[in-house]
Design a protein that fits this description.
The chain has a single domain, classed as 2-Layer Sandwich (Alpha-Beta Plaits). Helix 2 packs antiparallel against helix 4. A hairpin with a 6-residue loop joins strand 4 and strand 5. The protein contains 4 helices and 5 strands. The longest helix is centred in the last third of the chain and has 19 residues.
Length: 158
């Protein structure tokens, strides 16, 4: 059942007034594939715009905090923790993992997904002059904890 539709089938923000405040957490991931020399440049700190991972981490954190401004019908949330981790994966990928937490009445899945996506987009933006063929892939929810619907754990990718 889609929860953002009212009785007349119109989009609306879900009323969470009567939901209990519980600890909630979500973990999302994204990957960005690039040329090996692009990843090597990032890892060696040779990018003229600075530390690509540091800028992407900050962008992901800022994006999580502003998810309600980006995604219609998302609730503005007071996140208590946002972590964005970036690591080289093989010789041509960056793996991004975003984790968001709060004690609240609604989940933080969209915040974690937004953080991972924006971190990947930031890498693309910073490196597009040297590698326009980068590909952002596998943006997905890995885990969700708390709330009425309980625990969700994604299956391993095949």
């Amino acid at each position: 059942m889609l929860t953002h539709l009212d009785n007349q089938g119109r989009a609306h923000m879900v009323d969470v007034t009567d939901k209990a405040v519980t600890a909630r957490e979500a973990v999302a991931e994204a990957r960005i594939r690039m040329l090996p020399q692009t990843l090597q440049m990032i890892q060696q700190g040779g990018h003229p715009k600075g530390d690509v991972f540091a800028v992407a981490r900050i962008a992901g954190i800022q994006a999580a905090k502003k998810t309600h401004d980006l995604i219609p019908l998302c609730h503005p949330l007071l996140l208590t923790s946002i972590k964005v981790e970036l690591a080289a994966e093989g010789d041509d990928r960056v793996h991004i993992v975003a984790r968001c937490k709060l004690a609240g009445q609604t989940g933080v899945e969209m915040e974690a997904l937004t953080a991972a996506s924006v971190a990947a987009l930031t890498i693309y933006d910073m490196c597009k002059a040297v590698d326009r063929g980068m590909c952002i892939e596998q943006v997905r929810l890995l885990e969700k904890l708390g709330g009425k619907s309980g625990h969700y754990q994604a299956d391993s990718p095949e």
